[in-house]
Amino acid sequence: MNNKKYRFLLTDLDNTLLDFSASEREALSRTLSSLGVTPDEQTAAAYSAYNDSLWKRLERKELTRDELIRTRFTGFFKSLGIDADGCAAAPLYEKNLSGTAYVTDGAYELLRRCRGKIGVYVISNGTARVQLPRLSLSGIDKMCDGYFISEHVGHAKPDVRFFEYVSAHIPGFKKEEALVLGDSLSADIAGGAAFGIDTCLFDPNGKYDGDGTVRPDITVSDLYSVLDILHI
Fold first, then answer.
1. pTM of the model
2. If 0-12 CB within 10 Å is exposed, 13-18 middle and 19+ buried, where does residue 38 land?
3. Any idea which architecture 8-18+103-230 has in CATH?
4. Peptide bond preceding 171: is omega within 30 degrees of 0, i.e. cis?
5. At 222, is the secondary structure helix, strand, or coil?
6. Run means of pLDDT, 10 residues per run, the chain, 232 residues
C-alpha cells in the first residue's frame, strides 16, 4: 500500500464518481423514443462505442467539442442506417443526459470522509451544460471543494495546460501532495502523469491488464479502496 500522504484529490466525474454508462443508456433511450426509433441493447452498445471513439478523437485534438456535439448523432444514425433527424437528436440528448445522475457506489462515502481533511476537486472533460446540472442533481457540487470543466478551462484532459490551470486555481496546491483519480487511461492517467502527479486508475471491471505506455501508479476496483490510499 502506498504510504504517501495526499492533501489534494483531483477526481474525474463520469464513470468515476457518477455512473455515466447508466445515464447514457437512459438518455439515449429517451432520445430515440422521442424520435420514433425503438431503443434496444444493440443500439445502445453501438452508440456508446461510437460516442467514446469521438471523445478519444477530441482528446487527440482531431476534432473540436462543437463538432463532436453537433455531428455525433448524424454520424451515428448514418452508420447504422437509422432514418432519424440527427440535428434534432443532439440537443434532445443533452437535455435528457443533464437530467440523470447515478452515483457510483462508494462515491458519497469517499467525499464525506475527505471533507475537511483532503481537498477534493472534480476534473471533467464533459460539456458544461450537461455536467453542471448533474453535479447539482447528485449533490456532489456541495460535497467537493471545487470543480473544473474543460469547456471553461479552455483545454481538455490529457492536455498539460488543463492541469496547469487546475493547479494554479487551487490554493496551496503542490504536485507531490496530489492524486488524480479516474477511469480513463488516455485522459485522466496520461494527463496526470504528464503533469507529474500520482495517478490512480478506477477499474471496476478489471479491464486494465498492466500493458501499454500509459500506466497508473495505483489501480483500484472500487472507490472504498481510495480511502485506504488517502489514509482516511
1. 0.92
2. exposed
3. 3-Layer(aba) Sandwich (3.40)
4. no
5. coil
6. 87 97 96 95 94 92 91 95 94 97 98 97 96 98 98 95 98 97 96 98 91 91 97 94
According to CATH, the topology of domain 21-98 is DNA polymerase; domain 1 (1.10.150)
CA–CA dist 67, 81 (Å, integer)? 21
Task: Please enumerate in sequence order all residues whose Cβ is within 8 A of that of 74, keeping only pairs 6 or more positions apart, or say none.
Answer: 86, 87
12 is an active site residue: yes
Cell numbers linked to 224:
472504498
Kindly name the residue from 12, 14, 183, 198 that is annotated as catalytic.
12
CA atoms of 197 and 200, how far apart (whole Å)? 10
- Cα(187)–Cα(195) distance, integer angstroms: 12
